[in-house]
Structure formats: C-alpha cells, structure tokens
C-alpha cells in the first residue's frame, strides 16, 4: 500500500498557486499534515481525495494514477472534509445508509457496519434523531462514521477535531491511532498536539510548499539544543519578540518566562530546554518566512 | 450609525450578488427580451397591438414597451434571483454575528430590501440602455427623446421593483414561505394579480383592487394607451389588446403615440412604494433576528426533542475499534436500483403529510374524473405537485454541503447521476399513472407519447438547471412559467405533457423527447464539471 505524490501543483487564477511542486511518498501509518491556515493543506487533501484536479504533477495510489483511474482510489477511500453538511431531515442511520449505497456497500453488511460505527462514535443513542437537531460535535462524529463506512485503506481527515469537546478529541485521536495499523491515515490540522500524539510521519507545509517531511523524532532532532527558557523583565518583552522566535510566554512574579527557539542562547541566564514538536514546527515555519524575505 | 450600517449591508450584499452567474443570465435575458419586443416591420410576429393599431417606433413607444416588459419580467424572475439575501446570512452563520450587533431589525431588513432593489435596478439600467440602442436600430419617427424613454422606467418599473424587493424580504422572513412553498405561492400571487390587472371594458369602468393598486403599472399604462386609440378611432373597442409574442395575422395600422403625462401616475405609484414599505414593516414584525429557537411552535418542539447533547449519551456503550466488521472487496456491490431507492427516500423524506394527501387525492381524481376536467385541471396539477421534489435534483449536495463526501464516492457519475434522474421520473410516473391508465383505456397513443415526454422532461429540466445553477430557484421559476403557459393555458409549443388534446395530437412531444435528451446531456456535462472543479 503506497501513496505517491509527485510534483503536484494547483493554480488558482493566473498567478496564484495554492500548491506548488509538492512531492511526498507514504505508506501505512498516520501522516500528520501541519501548516498555518492557507498553507494548502485542504487543497492537497481534496486533490488526494480525487475531488479537485491538480494543475501539474500526478498522484499514484498503489501505482495507479488517480487522475486517470479515480475509481481505484475511491473504492478504498474514506474522506472527512473540513466543511461539510448533512441532510437535516434524515437521521444518522438513514444518512449513513445513503452514503453506503453511494459507496456500493452490500445492504446487509452496511446495516451491521452502520450499527457498529454508531457505537464507535458514541451516537448509538441518538441514531434515530434527525441530523438537523445535532450539535456541531455530533455532526462531526456522523462525518467520521461516513468516512469509515467502507473500511477505507486510505483515510483522509481534514481538521477532524474542530467542534469536538476535549474528551471527544482525545477519543478521536486514539481512534485514528488504532485505525492506522493496516492503512494510510492522512490527518490535516494546525493543532500540533493532535499530530504529536499519533503521527508516525509529519509533513510541514507553508505557502503551498512542503517544508519538511520526516518522522517526529527526526524533526525534534533538528531543533535539539535550539530551545531555551529565558526570563526577562516584562518591559523588554516587545524587544524580545522582535529579536527571537518565541514559542511561549508565561508571566510570573520574577518576570516573563520565555521559550525561545534560536541557534544560540539568547542570554547568559538562558537554560537549554527539551524540544517539543511545537518548537520544531515554529522553527520550520519561521525559517521559511525568513527565506521568503531574503 | 444606522445609515452606515444600512449602507454597508447594501454594499456587501450587492457586490456578492452582481458577481453571480444568475445575475448575468437575467441581465442578458432582459436585454434579449427587450430586443425581441421591438421587432422589425418584416418580423412574423407582433408584440403589442390594440385592435388593428400598433404604435410607430418613437422614443415614447419603445420606452413604454420595454419598461412594461421589464416590469413584468423582473416582478417574477427578479423575485427569484434576489430571494436569498437573508437566507445566505442564515446559512453562512453571518446572521448570528449580525444578531449581536446594534443594528435593528427594520434597519437590517431595510438594507436587504435596498440591496434587492439595487440588484434589480442594475438590470433596469441595462434595459434602458438597450431601449436607447433599439431606438437607433428600429426608430421610425421623431428624434431620440431620453426623457420619453426613461420616464416609464422611473414611474412604472421602479415602484414595482420596490414591492418585489420588499416581498422577497417578507418571503424570506416567514419560515414556511422561505423555500419551495413560498416560491409557488408567490408565483400564484404574481399571475393572479397580473390577470386581475389586464384592462377590460368592465375593469376600465370599475376597476378591482388589484387594478386600482396596479403594482406592475400594467393597467395604468395599457388603459391610457387604449383611451388614446379610442380618441383617434372611435370604432376601437376597449379591451381589445394583443400582448406578448403573437404570430402576425394581418398587417397593422400604425399610429403615433406621443407618450403620456407620467406625473399623473405619481400618486398611484407612490402608493405602491407605500405598500412595499408596509410589507417590509410586516416582515420586521415577524423577523426572528436569526434566533432559530423563535421559529413556529411545531418547529420549536421538533428541535427541542431532537437536540441531543453529549451528556445524554455519555453513558452509551462504546465499541472498540477492533470489533468493527472488516470489509473485503466482495462486500462491494454497486446497484443503480439500490441507489434509486436511496435517492427516492432522500427526496421523499421530510415531505409533509398534507402534500402526500394532496398527491393521493389528485391521483385518485385523475382515475375517475371526466376527461375534460382531467385535461383542463387535474393533469396539469399532477405535474406541478411534485415541483418541490424535483427542484432538489442536481443541487441537493450544494444546498446541504455534502459535495465533497458524495463526489468522492466510487463510480459516482455512473451510478448516482442516472439514479437521480430515475428517481425524479419515478415520482412523475407514480403521480401520473392514473392519467396513463385513462389514455391507455381510451387508446389515445399521441397523448400517451406526450405523457411520456412529460415524465422525462420535467425531471431532466430540474436536473439540468439544478446542476448548473446549484440552486432550486432557477428550476422553480422557469418550470412554473412553462407550466403556466403550456400545460395549464394549453399553448401547444410549451405544452410538454400534452394536456391540451390539440397539442398532444400535433406531435409536439417528439421535440420534448429531444429537448430532454439535450437537457440530460447538459446536466451530465455540468456534473462532470462540478466534479473536476
């Protein structure tokens, strides 16, 4: 099982690129796509899901070009879009039955699978209620269920934890982690902690380009020795922000505690700290912005 | 503050809407219809003739002719293109943000009404420019008199558009008028008032309420021209009028119409604006300010019963992922029939009991009523009853935001597209089966063929317009217009179901089979385009 993204670009209008020469190869596991808003994550997801066509480049699913043979990919695909709606007059069972029919899943199997999925996403008790009355988090869980209905080999989830409460968010992260064994899960988010917990590979994007694709440990290694904790007086905070990349600030009685990502220690009192994925993410995003300025 | 808020509401709304295709389509349609309404002398049709008389093409005649048609056209199609200003705020969630601002209900709705009006006025401006160009192309008399062209637009059209803009706001505010039912009710209202405003000898002597109010300005202008013709030729009989695109039976006698003193109409036209403002005021009274929990009681109860919070289900048993049934390739079994069943279910889910009862009643009557009654009313009614079902074809995904999920399904075009069309056709077959039985029993083959054309044409039109416009309104407005002129009023060329015996036996149905094939092909291309974009 392999997904190969080869120099994929998407152009909007004459000179605006949503995605530019994006290349990546991945296999079973969870690929976390990280990037700021507007980085091109959703565009990439839509192209992989065969909804949007790439302007340039190709995507191969198990060696087959999805632009030429989309059916091959779609049979194995589960997709949870970032923004989606539901038919308000249907209940969860009816909606999932409709999606199962569209995906060509056998009736008796579909019914069993729907029952199981509704239990999995904790909607069994509400399965006969019209979707129009569901809260945002509940609709999101219906979306998750429809993405899993065909037992997909490729699961694409775009900002899946939006609208979920903290408990549901943790459950969903665990669910993705459990699912990932025999399939490829692509998880797009700008919430670093969502990816940190479950991703086996991470791709950092910005401005439609891939900045870095590596395993979490390798990303952390890159910023090892470049993260510092440093205390400064509150009055010098603005100046510090201009000088260094700061990943967090905490006000205490002795001053402002900074977490600085920099090659050299920001001051003599600075203490080296263990790097987190968030530090690594900021490091790459910030470095790409510096490159753009140059 | 209020003025700024109204201006900003108007500006944002106007910019959003004039950048849409539907605006461009109605704009071009208006210009095209203006062009059709000033035909050259050699054309085989006439547009407005009073007995044997037709006006010479001078500025006053061209201006009034195009202004009247623009008023009639925008009163109907205009309503459908502007009737989503509030709905958009509701759907996008912007409404909830607006609700938290200090803007008052009336100010907000007034801004929306002005925005509606501005969209329509942009189209009117195009019609005025078209009239001026048409004067240079077809003018037969006098010199270009800008005032004579523009005045009927200002005095006749603008007040009517004030009313249309306010009515659109009103229909959006009242929950049960927001969607298809409201579109149909407005259509009925529009044609009722149009019919009541046609000048006849009786109405000119003692006009009814609609003729007195004369929202469209039709009665005032037509009756004035009739008086002028009568003064010129006492043999002319009041009410003798041909209006529309009508085949020329004989050569016209031309007369010079110098226009009228438009200021005479001003009190009446200002009254129309007053009525429009009253409609807006009524809308403000009913406006829920995006508080969905202020919807009518039935809706409120439904929402209350159906909203289930996480806490209620927290105790539910949760299945571990490993217990999910695995699916092998053997579990995939595509079936168009199963999809047709699903599409039908989706189409019929949420249908009100009154609708179903009405459908059953019409079907039963179609089996037993006299043939004349069947052709005159029941058969046409059976083809208007399912319009709310057909109107979701091709645009349901866009309306509910399910495109990404649906379009990423395997063999989507191969299975879902024909399933949608078939489900629409099945609805027509079910409702029209009584009529089919009657034609079979009578051995009326041409009528049976026309019936078949209707089965295919209505859902094909819905699918095509739904796919290309992304909304149900375009289909609803165009279909209602076709249905009114064709099946109900039996104009053979537009009688796509052969409701009139004459049209059924003329063999018109063959054209509708061909048009249906074209519509389905166009819909298919549109669907592919949706997928690729």
Overview in brief:
The complex is a heterodimer of chains A (294) and B (533). By secondary structure, chain A is α/β, with parallel strands linked by helices.
In which range does the helix fraction of chain B lie?
Answer: 55-70%
- List the secondary-structure elements of chain A in sequence, H or E: EEEHEEHEHHHEHEHEEHEHEEEH
Low-confidence stretches of chain B: 294-317
Distance between the termini of chain A: 40 Å
The CATH architecture of the largest domain in chain A can be given as 3-Layer(aba) Sandwich
**How big a fraction of the residues of chain A is strand?**
25-35%
Bulk shape of chain A: globular
How would you describe the oligomerization state of the chains in this entry? heterodimer
Looking across the biggest beta sheet of chain B, what order are the strands in? 1-3
Number of helices of chain B: 25
- Counted by DSSP, the helix tally of chain A is 10
- Estimate the mean pLDDT confidence of chain B: 85
Rounded to the nearest angstrom, the radius of gyration of chain B is 26 Å
Derived structural class of chain B: mainly alpha
CATH superfamily of the largest domain in chain A: P-loop containing nucleotide triphosphate hydrolases
Note poorly predicted spans of chain A. none
Q: Can you describe this structure?
A:
The complex is a heterodimer of chains A (294) and B (533). With 294 residues, chain A is an alpha/beta fold. Chain A has two domains: 3-87 and 146-219, Rossmann fold (3-Layer(aba) Sandwich); 221-293, no CATH class. In chain A, 35% of the residues lie in helices and 29% in strands. In chain A, helix 3 packs across helix 4. Chain B contains 25 helices and four strands. Chain B has helices at residues 2-18, 21-36, 59-82, 85-92, 94-99, 105-138, 146-173, 180-196, 201-205, 209-213, 218-232, 266-286, 297-306, 310-313, 336-348, 353-368, 371-382, 387-390, 396-400, 403-407, 412-442, 445-469, 473-488, 501-505, 509-532, and strands spanning 45-49, 53-55, 242-247, 253-255. In chain B, the strands form two sheets. In chain B, strands 1-3 form a two-stranded antiparallel ribbon. In chain B, helix 17 packs antiparallel against helix 21. The chains are: A alpha/beta (294), B mainly alpha (533). The interface between A and B is large, with 63 and 55 residues.
């Amino acid at each position: 099982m392999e997904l190969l993204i080869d120099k994929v670009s998407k152009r909007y209008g004459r000179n605006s690129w949503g995605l530019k020469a994006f290349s990546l190869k991945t296999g079973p596991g969870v690929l976390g796509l990280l990037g700021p808003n507007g980085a091109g994550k959703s565009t990439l997801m839509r192209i992989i899901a065969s909804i949007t066509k790439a302007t340039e480049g190709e995507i191969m699913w198990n060696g087959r070009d999805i632009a030429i043979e989309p059916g091959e990919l779609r049979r194995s695909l589960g997709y949870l879009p970032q923004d989606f709606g539901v038919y308000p007059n249907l209940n969860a069972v009816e909606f999932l039955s409709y999606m199962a029919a569209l995906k060509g899943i056998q009736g008796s199997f579909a019914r069993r699978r729907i029952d199981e999925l509704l239990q999995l996403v904790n909607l069994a008790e509400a399965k006969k209620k019209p979707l129009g009355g569901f809260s945002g988090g509940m609709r999101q869980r219906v979306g998750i269920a429809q993405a899993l209905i065909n037992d997909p080999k490729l699961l694409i989830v775009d900002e899946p934890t939006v609208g979920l409460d903290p408990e549901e968010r943790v459950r969903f992260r665990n669910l993705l982690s459990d699912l990932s064994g025999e399939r490829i899960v692509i998880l797009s988010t700008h919430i670093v902690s969502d990816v940190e917990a479950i991703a086996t590979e991470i791709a950092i994007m910005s401005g439609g380009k891939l900045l870095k694709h590596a395993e979490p440990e390798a990303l952390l290694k890159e910023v090892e020795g470049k993260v510092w904790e440093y205390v400064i007086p509150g009055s010098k905070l603005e100046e510090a922000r201009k000088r260094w990349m700061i990943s967090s600030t905490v006000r205490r009685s002795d001053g402002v505690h900074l977490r600085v990502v920099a090659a050299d220690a920001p001051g003599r009192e600075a203490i080296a700290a263990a790097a987190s994925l968030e530090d690594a993410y900021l490091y790459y995003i910030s470095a790409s912005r510096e490159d753009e300025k140059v | 503050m209020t003025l700024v808020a109204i201006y900003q509401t108007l500006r944002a709304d106007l910019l959003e809407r004039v950048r849409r295709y539907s605006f461009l389509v109605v704009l071009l349609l208006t210009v095209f219809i203006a062009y059709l309404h000033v035909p050259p002398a050699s054309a085989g049709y006439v547009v407005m003739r009073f007995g044997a008389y037709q006006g010479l093409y001078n500025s006053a005649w061209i201006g009034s002719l195009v202004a009247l048609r623009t008023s009639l056209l925008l009163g109907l199609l205009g309503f459908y293109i502007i009737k989503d200003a509030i709905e958009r705020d509701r759907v996008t969630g912007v409404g909830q943000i607006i609700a938290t601002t200090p803007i008052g209900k009336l100010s907000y709705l007034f801004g929306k009404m002005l925005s509606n009006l501005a969209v329509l006025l942009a189209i009117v401006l195009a019609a005025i420019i078209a009239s001026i160009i048409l004067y240079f192309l077809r003018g037969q008399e006098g010199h270009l008199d800008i005032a004579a062209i523009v005045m009927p637009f200002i005095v006749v059209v603008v007040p009517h558009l004030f009313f249309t803009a306010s009515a659109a706001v009103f229909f959006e505010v009242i929950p049960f008028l927001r969607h298809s039912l409201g579109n149909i009710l407005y259509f009925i209202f529009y044609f009722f008032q149009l019919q009541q405003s046609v000048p006849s000898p009786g109405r000119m002597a003692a006009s009814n309420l609609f003729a007195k109010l004369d929202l469209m300005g039709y009665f005032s202008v037509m009756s004035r021209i009739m008086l002028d013709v009568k003064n010129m030729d006492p043999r002319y009989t009041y009410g003798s009028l041909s209006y529309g695109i009508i085949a020329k039976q004989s050569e016209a006698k031309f007369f010079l119409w110098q226009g009228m003193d438009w200021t005479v109409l001003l009190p009446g036209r200002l009254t129309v604006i007053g009525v429009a403002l009253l409609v807006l005021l009524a809308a403000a009274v009913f406006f829920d300010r995006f508080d969905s929990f202020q919807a009518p009681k039935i809706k409120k109860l439904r929402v209350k019963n159906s909203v289930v919070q996480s806490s209620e289900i927290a105790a539910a048993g949760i299945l571990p992922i490993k217990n999910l049934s695995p699916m092998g390739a053997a579990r995939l079994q595509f079936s168009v029939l199963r999809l047709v069943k699903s599409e039908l279910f989706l189409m019929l889910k949420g249908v009100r009991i009154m609708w179903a009862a009405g459908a059953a009643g019409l079907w039963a009557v179609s089996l037993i009523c006299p043939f004349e009654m069947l052709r005159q009313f029941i058969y046409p009614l059976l083809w208007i009853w399912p319009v709310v079902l057909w109107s979701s074809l091709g645009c349901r995904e866009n309306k509910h935001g399910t495109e990404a999920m649906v379009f990423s399904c395997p063999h989507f075009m191969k299975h879902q597209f024909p399933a949608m069309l078939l489900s629409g056709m099945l609805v027509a077959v079910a409702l029209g089966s009584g009529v089919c039985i009657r034609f079979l029993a009578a051995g009326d083959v041409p009528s049976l063929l026309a019936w078949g054309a209707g089965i295919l044409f209505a859902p094909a039109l819905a699918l095509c317009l739904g796919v290309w416009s992304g909304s149900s309104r375009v289909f609803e407005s165009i279909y209602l217009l076709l249905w009114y002129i064709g099946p109900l009023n039996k104009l053979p060329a537009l009688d796509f179901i052969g409701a009139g015996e004459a049209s059924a036996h003329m063999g018109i149905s063959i054209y509708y089979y061909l048009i249906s094939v074209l519509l389905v092909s166009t819909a298919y291309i549109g669907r592919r385009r949706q997928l690729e974009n």
